């Protein structure tokens, strides 16, 4: 089996009028949103923009390969950038990047970038675990509205990976009914989903049929919250769960993703830990802790997650300094959170190494035919 970039190699000579837009195109553009473009790409073809990007000596190999394949592909190279926008701020935390691409004369695509590794972006992700709505979602909705008004005669796809997938779905929900009718599909790739108090709203349920989510069998971020929309579990050869998060690592065949039997034991156990944390530790306590924790990280001048992971010894020291900088009440909450996560993990620790059928009830890989999980984020 191949991966998404292999699909570009196999089918990249087929323009959209010969082979219609599909989920693999959506996955490619969700990943494409992470490439380091800037607002200067507006008005240029993807061929021209990627050609300039390829010339950068600092471009990492995987990004360069993706740019080169798009640059050479008849399917994508003549598409145009209509917009590229970026916003980053600390309070309220927003790390937002989005691009709009003209797919053909009748259709545009709005792609939202996920978390970029900054502490601001991580803060946003954490906020999603205890806030039904975050400020970045409203920024995403405003961006879709702006692009829709700029191109009033176009049909629209929204796509995104991780937090960007959540933004793609939220923007559809928050749009006016007239704009919602123009959106063909909102694709989320391993996006975290929503809380029940959000998706139980009539306005949200109206657009659920237009939402589509793909998650890898070892999904972590995609299992943080709930998915009332259709969800498909896909295969990935990557053993490391974090690497499975990247849709470019998912298996494809011809013009679609390859479905997995269902979520892995590890994914379902991690989800159980998220749910346990949510039900046992009140929302206000988690909010107070994370506010104190990110303030402590800022006091240590930690602005990127890589500062904690690149040099593990130095990162551990910086992390411990941030922990010690917490006030006593925040430290008690931190200890409570850590204890709860440890207890939940210990309860299930051996399950990933045992028989799936014997220890966890087999579930499906397509939520339209049966549940892919048997629990919900609100504990029911």
UniProtKB/TrEMBL annotation:
<dbReference type="InterPro" id="IPR024499">
    <property type="entry name" value="Mbeg1-like"/>
</dbReference>
<protein>
    <recommendedName>
        <fullName>DUF2974 domain-containing protein</fullName>
    </recommendedName>
</protein>
<dbReference type="Pfam" id="PF11187">
    <property type="entry name" value="Mbeg1-like"/>
</dbReference>
<dbReference type="InterPro" id="IPR029058">
    <property type="entry name" value="AB_hydrolase_fold"/>
</dbReference>
